[in-house]
Amino acid sequence: MTTLSIDAGRLLGRLHELGKIGRDGDGRLVRLAGSDADKAGRDALVAWIRAAGLEVAIDRIGNIFGIWGTADNADEASILLGSHIDTVIDAGIYDGCYGVLSGLEVIQTLKSAGFVPARPIAVAAFTNEEGVRYAPDMMGSLVHAGGLPVEEALATLGTDGTVLGAELERIGYAGSEEPGFLRPHAYVELHIEQGPVLEREGVPIGAVENLQGISWQRVTIEGEANHAGTTPMSMRRDAGHAAARVVTFLRDRARNANTPTVATVGCMSFEPNAINVIPSRATFTVDLRDPDEGRLQAEEAALAAYLAELAATEEVTISVERLARFEPVTFDRRIVELVEEAARRRGLASKRMTSGAGHDAQMIARIAPAAMIFVPSIGGISHNPRERTPDADLVAGANILLDVVSRLAAQ
Amino acid sequence: MTTLSIDAGRLLGRLHELGKIGRDGDGRLVRLAGSDADKAGRDALVAWIRAAGLEVAIDRIGNIFGIWGTADNADEASILLGSHIDTVIDAGIYDGCYGVLSGLEVIQTLKSAGFVPARPIAVAAFTNEEGVRYAPDMMGSLVHAGGLPVEEALATLGTDGTVLGAELERIGYAGSEEPGFLRPHAYVELHIEQGPVLEREGVPIGAVENLQGISWQRVTIEGEANHAGTTPMSMRRDAGHAAARVVTFLRDRARNANTPTVATVGCMSFEPNAINVIPSRATFTVDLRDPDEGRLQAEEAALAAYLAELAATEEVTISVERLARFEPVTFDRRIVELVEEAARRRGLASKRMTSGAGHDAQMIARIAPAAMIFVPSIGGISHNPRERTPDADLVAGANILLDVVSRLAAQ
């Protein structure tokens, strides 16, 4: 059993260095997939991988791999660690980068300690996890898992009119390896929680046992525009009011249910959007998440039933468009138990939890046993420059990853 | 007593011609105050006024006047007719335009019939009655009545960031007359009901004896943006959900009260307006109307109390900005009786009623005896392309206006 620990200074130094790369004119961190800023971040990562003496491999979708193999274990499937280094607009420095740099740190620590792995250990930085510039998100890991043909992914048109394949060529990261070339024996992703639970409960380590399913829908309600002063309340077909009913319905249902279900209406617009005109149309989005597929389907059905009832009582027309749908993912019980055991051995409290956000791990879980390790996010803040995790928690999380990998790579 | 009648073909022809002006790419009628479309409508009106041989005068807020005066009555206060020709977004062709064109039609009819008026007769098209682009609405008539300093009105910032004064300059309708230069002896405004009452009761003429009070407010709710997947329902400060609560509160209260109170939320916007982010800010408008000032104040107080309660329970910050506030208006009994008498003489049923909409007449009522004449709106539909009044009713209403004006201008 290893008593090794990672080099805290090296890990935190790289994290802050990478966080300086890709700042815009206003000092905001913006490393969108395929951009010049992304190239600068990738170049730094590749230099660190090389300096650690690992083999660098890049596949056709631009996923970067740092591989530590030996002559003895060359034929074995790899222990794969990883996450992503692309960011949202005005991002924090931890999301994704922490997992990639910790993976590299863990391999470098084992390597220099003379650890003898039974199989190769590799770290991956997957392309376009955030999906801000190119949809869908988690694209690089989805392609690696065979869930999206690489040609289709490369042809993706960006929000700015660019094509991902051309941008990867331009920045020099359209690699030659076929996606999926690296066969994972197991996958472990270390990540900040991006939620408030661990901090609130004072638990440093989250053993992530599953990941919420996501249902995204756009709802359009059509009523009748009419004069706000002369139309009696009883004669109105108010699309805006009907939309408000849906928002309160979703909130009350999720709030009162004793389940992890979360429901969010993030986008809303009224037409004609005039102060003295009853809205003729309201358009809004519904984001439903639940770790249980049956319950997620039940929530979708409850919404559909409510919309049908509302259409009748409010005399409005309602149409629904599905924008995205991912089933919940259950992670590998054995790896989750290794995370709990490692925390115990280091005297750290841990908690089994559900990931509320999407991660590359859910894609790799399609082809290999996978799990995640979470560390606390102060105030649950993420996708925001105020995203932060205390250094001690960052170091503890990386050491738990070290312990889990040394166990997985021992046989 | 005149037995004259207006030229139905001329009136209806101009009404349809004006209704063709200001159509957008989708064929929607959009003549917002100060826009290029507004300019096109104004140009057509001014040409018709000139063709009728009337004097054209434009004041600093852009109100257009067509004045028929004689050497003998030059010192007398005028009989003023009028309304507006600006529209909402995706409007019908009758709202406002019917009153302005009927006023012109009446003057033209009397003039060519050799009628000798004891005082000047003028028709006015008041600027920005709808208030869609610039608040408050009924702005031109408010300025004419001295209720708003012209400099303040000209400095109004539009929803699109434009300034009204600059837009009036740009379209060539920043006139030189001081607002209020034309002193009304009496004011009569002919308008479509914009409500369902006259049609439902089969009465062609409404003798409008009073007008609802109007309260416009903009409410801004500040919560906290956060990740839609990782933030438990119990830890959310969702500004969008709080806004939805206000919408349903207002609707339920007005719907269940046995009063003429109407409440409308016409504008709504969320920030950051992203599908997977809990709204940090929601901004919306509240339009409250009631013919009784005491009841209107009670409704405003009830909203304020609910907002205070909501701020506490939802942990959000709520600020309210007053956009406009008009007390209910009582019109001139003598003019209302002249309308009823004229209807009797023409064998038309009439009904005393309350205006649910705001009209320029309520502003001019501050400085002169004023009243309104309503004609039926099919289905009560207004502020909508399906707004319609049968031609026979349009012609009948204009003839009632003709009779009332000939009586008022006789002494």
TrEMBL record, chains A, B:
Cofactor or coenzyme needed: Zn(2+)
Coiled-coil ranges per UniProt: none
Secreted among keywords: no
Domain Peptidase M20 dimerisation: residue ranges: 212-312
Signal sequence interval, chain numbering: none
SUPFAM superfamilies: Bacterial exopeptidase dimerisation domain (SSF55031), Zn-dependent exopeptidases (SSF53187)
Residues annotated for Zn(2+) 2 binding in this entry: 95, 130, 383
Gene Ontology molecular function, alphabetical: hydrolase activity, acting on carbon-nitrogen (but not peptide) bonds, in linear amidines; metal ion binding
Top-level taxon of the source organism: Bacteria
Record-linked InterPro entries: Amidase_Cbmase, Bact_exopeptidase_dim_dom, Peptidase_M20, Peptidase_M20_dimer
Keyword Oxidoreductase: no
Keywords for this protein: Hydrolase, Metal-binding, Zinc
Cofactor remark from the record: Binds 2 Zn(2+) ions per subunit.
Residues annotated as transmembrane: none
Family matches, as NCBIfam families: hydantase (TIGR01879), PRK09290.1-5 (NF006771)
Similarity remark: Belongs to the peptidase M20 family.
Name under which the protein is recorded: N-carbamoyl-L-amino-acid hydrolase
Native organism: Microvirga subterranea
Lineage: Bacteria, Pseudomonadati, Pseudomonadota, Alphaproteobacteria, Hyphomicrobiales
